[in-house]
Specification:
With 470 residues, this protein is an alpha/beta fold. Helix content is 41%, strand content 14%. It has an eight-stranded mixed sheet, with helices on both faces. Strands 11-10-7-12-13-14 form a six-stranded parallel sheet, sandwiched between helices. A two-stranded antiparallel ribbon has the order 8-9.
């Protein structure tokens, strides 16, 4: 029997183009079970955390920067479950633990979702892991969005890209550390990585030296392709954290190059004649979508590279190799069977076939939420203190948004999450409805700027707390 009241769910999205559609799918699966689900910008949700009804918050990591907001949520009476959005980038547990797990923050998570068996092993061996905390090997909603039954979800956007750009070659970059949009977070060999608290290890020193050489080679590849493929638009799609100006400078003087980061990457992969990358998770997404992919590897460095992603593409060492591969890409086999994909990726990803990861997650979250339906609120003094801390944190972030070249600057925030309205969310729910034959009674309503509440028709909705800026 669907739950028509009780504990809600909060699904924040840090990078709109990377994860919003996937989290909307999970929101619909939860709303189908009767839960009210708040979806939208992570920044906007955090700024208004004190305004939400008691909820289960689905976190994107458990790193040190999340510690303060986790403590505020805990004292407000919210509960936290989590997965790590970057988990698949790591090959050994030690590096994952050092860079992605902050023990006090990790201990506040009540359920964990793993992308697959390897990630599950890393989570269970993490410092501070409590054996009483379940680790669910269900996959991830982002993988759901790559499955055949949802591929037509992107048809409308693919057609729009073709109308705007014609034939395309996509260069997907992954140099957020070397080319960060906020200058203090740029990492250079011999320097510091402030995102993990300081000096980089000798191994990472060598890794950044290797990545820097690839970065310079990728920048040189942009004008080369622009000159050799005048009948194509060269689309450079930077990592969400990157400085776009670097790529615009690399493309200077070439009118068939565009530096763009908007819309889901799946749309671009399905629209492009070929995608070029080095060590980017997009290589995995392209493989699952049967999109033609070239792994540009001008330097040998398997000990430093994200080899799983690189190995799924066609290797090219020189710019001439890249050009020749693009010219004959239509003759190369790029599709594979579901069985082949499971055999290749099954150690890293669950949910490649069978039930959607979103449905498995929705069942777990709904069961967890049922434990808190009707739960007594934390003590008034504790909630009042959390309210004050939440408002002060929001004020600090709002003031920082006016500082150029700051991690909370308005420009950088908008680069990661450009904005969403209830009308746009309902359009995307309609697409999911058409693909899956579900969600007939699911609808989104405005709740705050860049925040919507997704629920089943007939549910009593909380009143919006911020007027629409329209």
């Amino acid at each position: 029997m669907p739950n028509t009241a009780g504990t809600a769910v909060i699904l924040p999205s840090e990078t709109q183009s990377r994860e919003f559609d996937a989290k909307l799918l999970l929101a619909c699966a939860l709303a189908e079970r009767g839960r009210q689900v708040f979806v939208g910008s992570r920044i906007a949700i955090h700024a208004a955390m004190h305004r939400f009804p008691r909820s289960i918050y689905v976190a994107k990591d458990f790193r040190k920067p999340s510690n303060r907001i986790f403590r505020i949520m805990h004292d407000l009476g919210h509960h936290i479950v989590a997965w790590d959005e970057e988990a698949v980038l790591f090959y050994n547990a030690r590096e994952f633990h050092e860079r992605r797990v902050h023990e006090p923050t990790f201990r506040m998570v009540e359920e964990l979702f793993a992308w697959g068996p390897q990630n599950g092993e890393f989570l269970r061996s993490a410092p501070g892991y409590d054996e009483g905390v379940p680790v669910h090997l269900l996959g991830n909603p982002r993988i759901d969005m790559l499955r055949p039954e949802l591929r037509r979800y992107y048809d409308e956007d693919v057609a729009s890209l073709h109308r705007r750009h014609g034939r395309m070659i996509l260069i997907n970059t992954n140099f957020g550390k070397l080319n960060h949009a906020v200058s203090k977070y740029v990492v250079r060999p011999g320097g510091k990585d402030l995102s993990v608290g300081g000096t980089i290890t000798p191994f990472m020193q060598q890794a950044w030296e290797h990545r820097l050489r690839i970065f310079e080679s990728m920048k040189a590849l942009v004008p080369f392709l622009a000159q050799n493929f005048r009948d194509h638009t060269i689309i450079v799609r930077p990592h969400p954290a990157e400085n776009h100006e670097t790529w615009k400078q690399a493309a200077a003087g070439h009118d068939n190059v565009r530096v763009i980061h908007d819309g889901p990457v799946q749309t671009w992969l399905l629209a492009a004649d070929a995608m070029i990358h080095n060590g980017c998770t997009t290589g995995i997404e392209a493989y699952l979508l049967d999109a033609p992919t070239i792994s540009f590897q001008p330097f040998d460095g398997r000990q430093f590279d994200f080899n799983l992603s690189n190995d799924l593409g066609i290797k090219a060492v020189t710019p001439d190799d890249v050009a020749e591969t693009i010219r004959r890409i239509g003759q190369l086999k790029t599709d594979s069977t579901p069985e082949e994909k499971i055999a290749t990726l099954g150690h890293y990803f669950s949910g490649l076939a069978g039930p959607l990861a979103s449905d498995g997650m929705a069942a777990v979250i709904d069961r967890r939420a049922a434990l808190y339906d009707g739960e007594q609120k934390p003590a008034l003094q504790r909630r009042a203190s959390a309210q004050i801390h939440s408002r002060l944190r929001a004020l600090h972030k709002r003031l920082a948004s006016h500082i150029p070249d700051h991690k909370n600057s308005r420009a950088y925030n908008e680069q990661r999450f450009a904005g969403i309205t209830a009308e746009q969310v309902n359009d995307r729910i309609g697409r999911l409805r058409d693909m899956l034959g579900r969600f007939d009674k699911i609808k989104a309503a405005h709740y705050g700027d860049n925040i919507c509440v997704v629920s089943s028709l007939g549910s009593s909705l909380p009143s919006p707390f911020i007027k629409k800026n329209q």
